[in-house]
Design brief:
This protein is mainly alpha-helical and 414 residues long. Helices cover 50% and strands 12% of the residues.
Length: 414
């Protein structure tokens, strides 16, 4: 017979090993503890899990053991209706069973991180019918005051909105409360994620001594490519004579899960671009072409030393030393080590910072938004404007007023 008190007592010894029927228990970044128990199975056979929280590992282990004993005794047949209607259980089931087949694995991982770090701690054990508009509005207000970027908060709202559309169709709730949630502008936008002029100067000077990162980071900065697009770039996509780059693919992280939704594998593959509009061909500046020529010549030298044909048309432009595709985590590690060497490792700079820098430099110089949108691979100009339109400085508006004065003067002279 299953001995509940024995399993609970096991946690008092401070061991980090799981006891029998203890389930999955881990410590969160905020110091609290969290545990999962599979309580029943959906109509499709997928296991539904309940998440439990506590201040100590012992507290969570006790909760997990109690619930596990109930599940163990009833063989998934006598779990209360209220447990099955908990937000955490329903959201997990929707995400793995219904949403996962329709989205990329990277998007799925982002949704899972939202659930793990934000949704479940806030609403996990609540009955879905008890979470109303006021609770959600307060939740998003807290995220706004907490300093999260507006775009991140909007992505959270999008994920919850999709889940509640499903919940309405399944008659789990009568309406979608997310539709009326208002996202307040906390002032944290793309320009705060872009390099400052001082940071650019430090980085550009340091790049002169880094043969690999110089072309990579300057191409990011002066083309606006996504990191995944640069990783998938092949020499056949580059025309040094015509000064053009063609974006036709992107690296994607393929993540596999077990039936409980646990990650069991990750690998980088070449797939489609983020959206159809991301497939594009565009002219690039002389600085980009110069960097690519230098890199091409360096790769030719490496061919003589290694025998690997780095400059073949099908080869990745920034392949590894073995001629294989680089990975996003690998590229990120290169950047982190570089930033640490030059003293910028604590300033929140990431691979995407250089894309944001590209997007903020052009509007400041009054570049046509349509051109910026096309270069960045956005499907709509409105996407670019909604993210970056607020960065236009007072100097730009002053130039606009001068332009209007000039138009009036020229008209009167005629």
């Amino acid at each position: 017979m299953y001995n509940l008190s024995k399993e609970i007592n096991k946690t008092k010894k401070g061991s980090r090993r799981r006891g029998n029927k203890e389930g999955t228990i881990y410590q969160r970044k905020n110091g609290d503890w969290c545990g999962h128990v599979t309580i029943c199975r959906s109509d499709t056979g997928k296991p539904l899990r309940k998440t439990l929280y506590g201040k100590t590992r012992q507290e969570v282990a006790s909760k997990v053991a109690l619930l596990s004993s109930e599940v163990f005794a009833t063989d998934y047949t006598n779990i209360s209706e209220s447990a099955i209607r908990e937000f955490g259980v329903l959201f997990e089931n929707w995400l793995i069973t219904f949403k996962a087949p329709t989205i990329k694995s990277q998007t799925l991982e982002r949704y899972r991180n939202f659930a793990k770090n934000h949704f479940i701690p806030a609403f996990g054990e609540m009955n879905i019918k008890d979470i109303n508009l006021i609770r959600f509005q307060r939740f998003f207000n807290e995220k706004t005051h907490g300093g999260y970027a507006v775009q991140t908060i909007k992505h959270m709202k999008q994920a919850l909105g999709q889940f509640y559309k499903y919940a309405v169709k399944q008659k789990l709730v009568n309406c979608n409360p997310i539709e009326d949630v208002k996202i307040r502008d906390n002032g944290r936008h793309a320009e705060q994620m872009a390099l400052t002029l001082q940071q650019r100067e430090i980085i550009f000077r340091a790049l002169e001594q880094d043969i690999l990162l110089k072309p990579i980071l300057l191409i990011f900065t002066f083309t606006g490519l996504r990191p995944q697009e640069l990783i998938a770039l092949r020499w056949k996509n580059i025309s040094l004579e015509a000064h053009t780059i063609s974006v036709t693919a992107a690296s994607n992280r393929e993540i596999t899960y077990d039936d409980n939704g646990k990650v069991i594998g990750r690998r980088e593959i070449i797939g489609t671009t983020k959206i159809a509009g991301s497939i594009r061909k565009f002219p690039v500046s002389d600085i980009v072409i110069e960097c690519l020529r230098e890199w091409y010549e360096y790769q030719e030298e490496q061919e003589q030393k290694t025998g690997i044909q780095f400059t073949e048309s099908e080869r990745f432009v920034f392949s590894s030393q073995k001629g294989t595709m680089r990975t996003y985590p690998g590229l990120r590690s290169l950047l982190r080590r570089f930033l640490k060497r030059i003293g910028l490792d604590n300033e929140g700079i990431s691979l995407y910072t250089f894309r944001h820098t590209f997007a903020t430099m052009l509007p400041e110089r009054r570049e046509n938004p349509k051109i910026v949108s096309t270069l960045m691979g956005h499907s709509k100009v409105l996407t670019t404007l909604s993210i970056y339109s607020h960065i236009i400085s007072d100097a730009v508006y002053e130039d606009t007023t001068k332009t209007l004065d000039t138009i009036y003067t020229e008209t009167m002279q005629k």
